[in-house]
Amino acid sequence: MSRQDQKQKKVTLLDVAKHADVSRATASLVVRKSPLVGAETRQRVEAAMRELGYVYNMGAARLRAERSHTIGVVVPNLTNPFFAELLSGMEASVDAAGLVMIIANTGDGPPRQAIVLQRLREHGVDGIILCPAAGTTDEIASQIEGWKLPLVQVLRHVTDELDYAGADYVAGMEEAVEYLVSLGHRAISFAAHGPVHSAYQERVQGFLGAMKRFGLRPEPVIRFPDRVDQIAQEADALFVKDRAPTAVICFNDLVAHGLAAGFYDRGLKIGRDISLIGFDDVADAEAMRPRLTSVSTAPNEIGQKAAALLLDRIAQPALPPRRWINPTRLHIRDSCRPLSSS
C-alpha cells in the first residue's frame, strides 16, 4: 500500500496489528500502555503505528469505556394499564440511580422484539428489562451472553440463566378459587385472553390445581379476544350447553372489565347473579361498580425490583442468576357474594 493510499484510508488498530504481526488485543494493550506487553513486541507495534500514521482516538476510547446511563425497557403492550404501573415502579428506582429509561413496545411479537433489542443495543444502553414476547425461546440467554449486555426478565420468564422478577401467579389463582369455594361456589370458570406464555401457563396451572384440590370439575378455560369491547360481545361464551358458572375468575382486570360490560348487557348483576374476580388489581379495579375483587400482583413493586436486579447486574456482571417472586394477595371488594344469597 502506497503512502498516498494510507492517507486516503483511515488506519485502524487492526491495520496496525496486522502490520506488526500481532493480535488486535495485543495492539490495544500497547496503545493503552499496559505493562502486560513485552518490550520487543511494544517496540514493533509502536513502529507500525508510526509507519502507518495511526492516531489513537482518546475521545472514542473514553466513550467506549463510559456508561450511557440509560436502560432499555421492553414490554408487549403499552396500552394495558398494568404496564403503566409496572413502568412507574421501574422509573422510581432508575431515576434514584441517576439513569433514564428508553421504553419500547413489541406488540407481543418475537420479530419486533428482535428489532427493538438490536436498536437498544445500538443506542448503547447499559442494560435491558424485558417482558419477553410470547414465543420467545431460551436461546435469548446465549444471545444476551454474546452481547455482554445485562438483562432482567420481568413478569414472564423463558430461561433460568437470566435474572427474573415476577409474581406468584399460581398462589394468586389458588387463593381466588379458595375464596369462591368458601362462598359456596362450585361452578367456577376461568376467562383468559392473549397469547400463551409463562404467566398464562402459571395462572391456568393454579386454577386447575385448586379446582382439583377441592374436588371440583374444572370448567374449560374460555378464551376471549384482546379488546374490552370484543370481550363484552363474547360474554355468552361462558354460558353454553350445560355450563352455567356462578363465578368467573379472569386472567386479568382487563378481561374482568370486558365481562362486566357483557354481563350488564345480558341483564346479570355482578355480586348478585354472578361473582367476578380479576387479576393484577390495577387502579381501575376501584373505579368499577361494583368494585372489583382482584388478585393483587403489585406491579409497582415488581417494577422496582426488576430495576434493582438490573442495577445490581450492571455493577456486578458475574453475579449468579437470581429469581425474585412477589407474593400475591386477594383484595376483596364487592363483586363476589355467597352463593346462597343469589
From TrEMBL:
SMART domains, per database record: HTH_LACI
Matching PROSITE patterns: HTH_LACI_1, HTH_LACI_2
SUPFAM superfamilies: lambda repressor-like DNA-binding domains (SSF47413), Periplasmic binding protein-like I (SSF53822)
Segments forming domain HTH lacI-type: 11-65
Record InterPro entries: HTH_LacI (IPR000843), Lambda_DNA-bd_dom_sf (IPR010982), Peripla_BP/Lac1_sug-bd_dom (IPR001761), Peripla_BP_I (IPR028082)
Signal peptide: none
Domain of life: Bacteria
Alphabetical keyword list: DNA-binding, Repressor, Transcription, Transcription regulation
Pfam families linked to this entry: LacI, Peripla_BP_1
Protein's name in the database: LacI family transcriptional regulator
Species: Pseudorhizobium tarimense
Organism ancestry: Bacteria, Pseudomonadati, Pseudomonadota, Alphaproteobacteria, Hyphomicrobiales
